[in-house]
Design a protein that fits this description.
This protein has about 80 residues and is mostly helical. Helices cover about 30% and strands about 5% of the residues. Strands 1-2 form a two-stranded antiparallel sheet. It is elongated.
């Protein structure tokens, strides 16, 4: 199956993040794929912004290790 990796920005500051528009980038990628493949582009329906539910009742034991960027940790039910 053909595939492509699109890197649409390098965000390493608040100024860069303020310029980034994910929806605009996604639309540009979709238009480019459609143009390349000869498929007519159809505007996507706008979906409301998703808000993740609050997570409560979990505890992360950080006493035994240093936290590192990109590392995976296990959360366990909070003992009452």
């Amino acid at each position: 199956m053909p595939a492509a990796l699109a890197e649409v920005g390098f965000i390493d500051s608040a100024e860069d993040m303020n310029r980034f528009d994910a929806a605009k980038a996604a639309q540009a990628i979709a238009r480019g794929i459609c143009k390349h493949t000869g498929i007519a582009y159809k505007q996507a329906v706008t979906v409301s912004t998703f808000t993740a539910p609050a997570i409560t009742g979990l505890m992360l034991d950080i006493g035994s290790k240093d936290l590192a960027t990109g590392a995976k940790y296990t959360a366990s039910p909070l003992q009452r």
